[in-house]
Every structure is written in structure tokens, then in C-alpha cells.
Amino acid sequence: MDSPLTLEALEQKLKLRFKEGFLSLKDLPLPDTFKDMQKATVRIVDAIKNYEKITIIGDYDVDGVTSTTIMKLFFEEIGYPVEWIIPNRFTDGYGLSVNIIPKIKGTDLAITVDNGISAIHAAQLCKEEGIELIITDHHLLSFQIPEAYAIINQKQEACEFPYEDVCGAQIAWYLAASLKNALNVKVNMVEYLELVSIAIIADMMPLQHINRAMVQAGIKALSQSSRPAIKAFLEYHQKEYLNSDDIGFFLAPLLNSAGRMDDASHAVEFLTSTNIYDARVRLAKLVELNTLRKTTEQTLTHQALLQVDTKDDVIIVVGQEWHEGVVGIVASRIAQICQKPSIVLSENENGVLKGSGRSFGECDLFGIVDSCREHLEKFGGHQAAIGLTLHKEKLEWFKSKIQKKYRSKGYSQKIFDPQITGALYFSQIDFKLTALIKKYEPYGYGNPMPKFISYDVEILQIQTMGKKGEHMRLLLKQENVVLQAVWFKSRGDVKIGQQVQLFYTLSENYFQGKISLQLIIDKII
């Protein structure tokens, strides 16, 4: 067995994730550290004084939905009417697009949230229509940026905001905070952190620096929230409070399902519900859409797996009229199952292939596909996730080029889980250990939950759990120590008496007033 991890060594590893230590809300940079924040604030204040028509333009993912909701609620709170629109994924495309310009005619001032930094053509059309434009976005800038009155984006070179990895909802929150100060109105900005925390987790921002502080404050506010939507969600899941896992695994997918399966406006209307009765009805609609999303995703994953060529280094599959809203999730599932980067494409009736890719291991999928950019109709994303469009006649060439490019990079085929923090004996697992782990919450992207490995573990008991017996409860023994374990969506064939190697995280299980330690199994070998 590897040398067992001590408490001191674990704390040292966790500390290294927080170079500035633990920050709090008092450490948040001022709004004016954003380039153009003051300029945008003055322009919006003038628009309010002159009764101009303001339109908020959002995006259909969780970050875009929460950003739109923050702006909508803020303007309602200060008593100024604004219009808002979230483009439909299927009919309008992404963000500030050419397709939505006719829908915002008559607007004096348009404010984008979580989008706009790549909207060159649409920005020009705004200018032609006499619509002044303020862009707030957090995505990467390309060599050309749109023409706008003000652009608030932390990735601009001249921007002094010290943190690059923030999401659209954080920038929307900062804009609202700046407006609050300029207008000298009483608005509790901490309450809006409820929405910001959802976006930070859903958009996979690293849970470090100010992101950790904002999520901690947001989760605390969520658990005491007076918002009907949050009350309805807690009621539906029979919970008294929320944690980062509840947001990442339940609330975020629910909000995302609106834009994936129908229209993201359903999610905004749910979050802005004014009473519990409306919130319950709107929640039921989202639950229905999320159930449809899960079913569609399972069906397409099954169909996609039938096409997989295991000899390929990068899996590329194509389906006729596959649902565009879930191809990204299906690509992620295929990548995990095949343990290879995966691209899933949907072919429409015109022979156009549109889809998403997800990386695996150390592969820079963006860099590999970028080598084919001149033959792609559309392409964007980052190292781990991409979106692309190409014509059917280019498919075989694309497949061949991608495989060659991958092989030329010399990526290691060895699959190593970077989240393994260290090895443990069962005798080391106690409440001191879980107390130390809790100290570094919330966990998520950039601050993963510590994962451990234990060797020579005997399986004493196996029980199935769940409506369809899809989970397992195990009793495990190492030397003279026996521990309970849960294996959700168990993927392995294990037997009583077997000696195994475990990969797991730790949790405290609260049941009938008693607390016990349990292992949450990730993998058994």
C-alpha cells in the first residue's frame, strides 16, 4: 500500500488550493476595478432618468438564466420597468444574435448578460437600429470585438479586476451593485448572492478566491431564502437547507432543462415567482422538462454507444435529428464511459452536422479541433468542451484529421485520476478527518472533494437500494475495522468475500438523530 495520508499532509494539500487563504465578502474587489463599469453605470443611470426603454438580453444556460434574473429583480426592486429576452436555442441561436434584433426593436439601451463578446454582426445591427449596447460577458475574447458603448469583461487586457475565472452572473451582480451605489438606493446585495452561487457552481467556476466567498454566502442565504422558487424547491426535495451538491446535481440541471428542451424563459419565470403557488406550478413544468431531458439523454447515449469505434482515439458519432439540447451531455457520458475524448453530432435535413464535444484526461480537445477550423461552419469552446458545426461532406475528412492530430500530441494513454488525494487505512477514518474535510467546503470545480484509495478491503455484505435496485449498500472490512459504504449507480460486478481496491470520498450520514461515517464509492477494482 502507498504511504498512508496523515491529517497534517491532507491539510497541507488542501491549503495549497487557496494561495490567498480563505476570503470573505469584505475581500471582494470594488465594481470600478472592471473596465467600463463606471461608464456603463453612468449610461444606465441616464437611461433611468430619461425613461428610456432598457432590454436585458440573456443566455439559455444556468449562468445566463440567473444573470437575467438578477437584472430583472434588481430593476423591479428599484421600481424601473425593463424588458428581458433569452434567445431560444433552437430558433434564435446563442446570445445577442442577428435573429433577435427584430425582437428588440424600439429599445434605447440593450444590456447583454453572460453573452455578447462575440456578437460582431448583431452589435452592428444594433447600431443601425439606433440601439445603444452595453455588453457584460465573461467568455474569451477573439481578435475582433463588437462595437459597443461599454464592454464589461474581466478578460479584457485593460481590465484591472484581479480574477479571471468569474461567471456572467457575478458580473451582472457587480453591475447591479455599481448601480445601487450610483442611485443611492437601499438594496441588499447579499440576497442576490443566492442566484450568483447557483451560477458559479453550474458554470463550473473554480471554488477558490472570491468565488468560494460568494458561494458560501449564497448557500447560507439560499437556506434562509424567502424566495418562493427556493422554498418550492426545498419543499419538493424535502430539504431544510441546500449545499453545493444539491445545486450541482439537482437545482442546476433543473434550471438548465428549460433551455435544453424548450425555452429558458421558463427557468427565469420560476426563479422570479412572486408566490409559492406560482412557484410550485412553474417547478412542476421544470421537473417535467428535466424528466424529458433525462429520457432523451439516456436514449441518445444508448444509440451513440452503438456507433462507437473503440479503435478511435477520439470518439466521433453522428445521429439523424438528435436533440440539440442534450448532445453536450451525451458527449460527456460517452467520454466517461469510453474514457476518451468524444464528439456527438446531430445531422439535420440539410446535411448540416451540429454538436458538442467533451474532453477526457489531459487532452486539449479545443486545440485538436482548432486545427480543422477553416473547414468548420461554426466553432467555439475551451480545452474541455467545444461546440461545432460542419457540412456532412466534410465528416470523413474531419474524423481522419482529428485522429491524426490527437496521435501527434503524444497524450498518455494511462488513465490517472487527478482527484486521488492519497491512500488511507480504515483505521484512520474518523470524525477528526471529516471535520478537516468540512473545513475546506464548499467542494466543486477547482476544489474537488478529497478522494481516497484503500487496498485489501474485504466485502462482507451487499444490499441493493433505490426503486430499481440501481444503487448498492456495502459493508466493508480492512484488517479489524468495518465501515458502511454506498455505491450510487453501481457499475461493477462485486461479490461477498472478494478482496478489492476502493476509490471513494467520505461523508457523515445523519439518520434518526445519529451520525455515522460512510464511504461514497467512486470505483472498485
In short:
38% of the residues lie in helices and 21% in strands. By secondary structure, the chain is α/β, with parallel strands linked by helices. Helix 5 packs antiparallel against helix 6 (189-202).
Helical segment tally?
Answer: 15
Overall spatial form: globular
Beta-strand fraction estimate: 15-25%
Q: In whole angstroms, how far apart are the ends?
A: 14 Å
Spans of at least 5 consecutive residues whose pLDDT stays below 50 are none
Helix content: 25-40%
Strands, count: 16
- Named at the architecture level, the CATH assignment of the largest domain is Alpha-Beta Complex
> What structural class do the secondary elements suggest?
alpha/beta
Please give the largest β-sheet. Answer: 5 strands, parallel
Whole-number total of structural domains: 3
Would you tell me which CATH topology of the largest domain applies? inorganic pyrophosphatase (n-terminal core)
Instruction: Provide the gyration radius in Å.
Output: 24 Å
Regarding quaternary structure, what we see is single chain
Spatial sequence of strands, sheet with the most strands: 2-1-3-4-5
Mean pLDDT: 93
Tell me the name of the CATH class of the largest domain: Alpha Beta
